[in-house]
Write a structure and sequence with these properties.
The chain is an alpha/beta fold. It folds into 2 domains: 152 residues, Quinone Oxidoreductase, Chain A, domain 1; 140 residues, Rossmann fold (3-Layer(aba) Sandwich). The strands form 3 sheets. Strands 3, 4, 5, 6, 7, 14 and 15 form a 7-stranded mixed β-sheet that branches. A 6-stranded parallel β-sheet has the order 10-9-8-11-12-13, sandwiched between helices. The chain has a two-stranded antiparallel sheet with strand order 1-2. Helix 3 packs across helix 9. 48% of the residues are buried. Bound molecules: NADPH dihydro-nicotinamide-adenine-dinucleotide phosphate (NDP). NADPH dihydro-nicotinamide-adenine-dinucleotide phosphate binds next to helix 1, helix 3, helix 4 and helix 10.
Length: 324
């Protein structure tokens, strides 16, 4: 089969489209023919060497596809089932393996809405947005929170999920077009990064926001902490601009008994029940029309390097999808 392989850590150019051995299905696993692949920021961290992985390395965890073979002991899936996953192995490929417990069938009722492309846009950023909105921090109806990179993949979905819970979302985004998209997703206001702390304070009558969801990291962290109200919560969930350097915990005291968490999706999919609950709410939101998926850019699998360049170059909105 053909796959994208990174031979060593480096820039997007290390992603080479290559013939490689076929994936072999083991007990409890599914072999899946890839329909569409979701590109996520984590794959840029892994490719660049920021997050350690063993090379040579086929990136990717998220995809939609059809089951080609079921491993020993798997009874919940049949050959031909349409599935999605955020937890596949090496999904930048024509075929991939996923543990059966980490795959989810596309519900019959969503067969038309969740095209291959849309289905690949849902799992990873959808589950992430769901745990951020429901479990990583607590904000109440009527409170105001700040979401950075409001027109990104996570940003658009998180804004919709929080807004549906009655929370006022304000966002940052780098261009007027991105800010328009963010407002269309439900943000009460979207503004540029410059001076975001002052604008967020103005919008909360000087009080500050209840939660900051920060996936930008290095460039926004300091000002994000200074944007929180007394006992506000900082949810640092990524570093699109780079990792945040070590900081003095006394700043949490000085800032108003703040709290901080650095969550990761895997810790919010701890049981089959938790995974089913999160997917169930996402599917219901899509069916009800309150959650809309946006695929901003698509590329052929062979062009994965261009997809990484676009994501790292801030050229994308919503989801980036590859087609094998
Ligand atoms: P996005 O679609 O949000 O793309 C990243 C966005 O970050 C850009 O479009 C850009 O928006 C903004 N950005 C700000 N500064 C920079 C910079 N210097 N370089 C590049 N981008 C920048 O990506 P995702 O939705 O896939 O991911 C968003 C964040 O969430 C990432 O940090 C990712 O690692 C994290 N994440 C964390 C998970 C977790 O469980 N912890 C799971 C999934 C994602 P703009 O131009 O508007 O500034």
């Amino acid at each position: 089969m053909r796959a994208i392989i990174a031979g060593a850590a480096g820039g997007p150019e290390v992603l080479q489209y290559t013939e490689t051995g076929d994936a072999q299905v083991g007990p409890g696993e599914l072999l899946v023919e890839t329909s569409a692949i979701g590109v996520n920021f984590i794959e840029t961290y892994q490719r660049s060497g920021l997050y350690p992985v063993g090379f040579p390395f086929i990136p990717g965890a998220e995809a939609s596809g059809r089951v080609l073979a079921v491993g020993e002991g798997v009874s919940a899936f049949d050959v031909g089932d349409r599935i999605v996953t955020a937890e596949g192995r090496a999904t930048y490929a024509e075929r991939f393996i996923v543990a059966a417990i980490a795959a989810v069938k596309v519900p019959d009722s969503l067969e038309e809405i969740l095209t291959d492309e849309a289905a690949a846009a849902l799992p990873l950023q959808g589950l992430t947005s769901h745990y951020l909105a429901t479990s990583a921090a607590q904000s109440l109806e009527g409170e105001t929170v700040l979401v950075h990179a409001g027109a990104g993949g996570v940003g658009l979905l998180l804004t919709q999920l929080l807004t549906a819970r009655g929370i006022h979302v304000i966002t940052t985004a780098s261009t007027p077009e991105k800010r328009e998209l963010s407002v269309a997703a439900g943000a009460v206001e979207s503004f540029a990064y410059e001076g975001f702390r002052e604008r967020a304070r103005e919008l909360t009558d000087g009080e500050g926001v209840a939660v900051v969801y920060d996936g930008v990291g290095k460039d926004t962290f300091d000002e994000s902490l200074a944007t929180l109200r007394v006992r506000g919560q900082m949810v640092l969930f990524g570093g699109a601009s780079g990792p945040v350097p070590p900081f003095d915990p006394q700043r949490l005291n000085a800032g108003g008994s703040l709290s901080i968490t650095r969550p990761t999706l895997v810790h919010f999919l701890q049981t089959p029940g938790e995974r089913a609950w999160r997917y169930g709410e996402l599917f219901a939101g899509i069916e009800a029309g309150v959650l809309k998926l946006r695929v901003g850019k698509t590329f052929a699998l062979a062009e994965a390097a261009a997809a990484h360049r676009a994501l790292e170059g801030r050229e994308t909105t919503g989801k980036v999808v590859l087609f094998p």
